[in-house]
Design brief:
There is one protein chain. By secondary structure, this protein is of the alpha/beta class. Helix content is 39%, strand content 16%. It contains 13 helices and 15 strands. The protein has a five-stranded mixed sheet with strand order 11-10-12-9-13, sandwiched between helices. Strands 5-1-6 form a three-stranded parallel sheet. It starts with a helix and ends in an 18-residue tail after the last helix.
Amino acid sequence: MRARRLRGALRGWGGVGAMAFACALAVLFALLLPVVRSHGEGGGTGTGGHGVAHGSQARAAEECQDPEKQTLSPSGDDGPTIDEIQNRRGEKRKLIVGVDQNSYRWGYRDPNSGGDAELEGFDIDLVRRIAEDILGDRDAVQFKAIPTDQRIPAIQDGRVDMVVRTMTISCDRLTDVAFSAPYFKTGQQVLAPKSSDITGYDRTLAGKKICTAAGSTALSTLEQRQREGGLAADVDLGTTVPNQLDCLVRLQLGEVDAVVTDGALAASQAAQDPTVELRGTTFTDDEYYGVAMKKDADDLVRRVNQILVEWRADDTRGWKYSYDQWLSQTMGDAAGSEPPQKPDYLRTS
């Protein structure tokens, strides 16, 4: 970049003038470079530099084990984050939640229910349960449709109080946000046309074009396995989309050969299109969905964990009720058909 700018600046100058100009710029760069590095560009050692922060995050991710347990014990107490939510006035006194509106049976608008169809689905049931507990009104929610790759930025920027959007708890994500205890168990799986010769996560993916959502666990898992040799080098992972449903559209248009996503989402997409189906079994260890919140929102994390304890135990309008209403037809007795067991809460602060 600097070389291109230098060449552009030299156009039209005489030889002597150009040489003097180049020498002056070279001296200037030499003087400024240590200053730039001291502020952390490219991993410098300056206090608070980005290189230090990224190094710390990488070490934290490497040391993380059992990410689904890296959460705080339940508590029904209020705190500063909850107080801020409860002190909102008038129409603004709502829980602000990032959700999906295109994930069939999870967070979606039923096209058969009229023009102004409300959001509904398994994730939406959980959001309303949280709003009812914190604000006393299950409808006191401002839903914000958030693309897959904007889930973490939306939390960090304060655009939402939390994200409830089939978001997998992972060690990498724990460096950026806090998670509740798990509320659903799943794993990565392949979705392909029924006419395809793809049989699952195996050698039949060689030479195929795969679609994943940008910022998804599916994409990071496949990229890592390809680097490590566990996935054929000629598998094309170049097709990424903002929202997972866009992958189903790409598959229907014949632009890709298969989709890789959470088995729970893949089952819902298969239910939307009878020409596609899940191939093979889940090919990762168990993965868990959690409610994502800001790193320092400890009181909100504890409160959501308390709500999850009560939601799992509720025999009338609890976890099982929502599963039967929204997911049983698409998932049957799959891995997620029972709520995750009460976790060991490993975080103490």
